[in-house]
Amino acid sequence: MKPLILALGLSLAGANAAQAMDEQTFHMVRGEVDGAEIDGADIFTWAGEAWIGGDTNRIWFKTEGEIEDGDVHGAEVQALWSRNISDFWDLQAGVRVDLQPDTTTYLAIGIQGLAPYRFDTEATAFLSEEGDLSARLHQAFDLHLTQRLIAEPHVELNAYAQDIPKRDIGAGLSDAQLGLQVRYEITRKFAPYLDFVWESALGETASIARSNGEDVRSQSVRAGIRFWF
């Protein structure tokens, strides 16, 4: 099934590339890197995205991951074709590849845009090469305290339609992350930040973690930088 998902995903991601290039072409690269000490371990995370294209069609690349004490515990990349479907919303489809904790390929389809009350929203469904269905919702909101000081509450939820024993994941809502990032924009393109993050496994996934003797919740204060160009 993996070759089929790759072919479908890359076809979706590239189907409108030629059309996108026919429009006036823009591009953007945006990223965040931060670090924290959690339960005695040094944790570094990254999240980045880049797009190229016009007002209607774009090609997106996204990546995120985590390094714990020098070992990569999670890493994923996505390549997506994006098409504007309304004033504030894009439909996105393509392929996601997890590089860690194991190599798995997914077909991805979702929406990205600005929900009412100016919530930046990403909602994506994933179908793995093994037929596992999952979904991810991410929302964030910029609250300007001053022109340069910004507080950004954010939330991410993950859910699965079935158990995935090899990753100790149970069906249902599996985990949640709530945070408040406070950043100071030295320039509009560069901002150091502190991110106060609370994470928890949920439901059956939390039960599996407890049976393995693992903590199901953690809190951290992450120091990092945000940039775009």
Automatic annotation (TrEMBL):
Q: Which GO terms describe its biological process?
A: intracellular copper ion homeostasis
Cross-referenced InterPro entries: Cu-R_B_prcur
GO MF entry, a single one: copper ion binding
The superkingdom of the source organism is Bacteria
Q: Which GO terms describe its cellular component?
A: cell outer membrane
Task: Provide the alphabetized UniProt keywords.
Answer: Signal
Q: Where is the signal peptide?
A: 1-20
Name it.
Answer: Copper resistance protein CopB
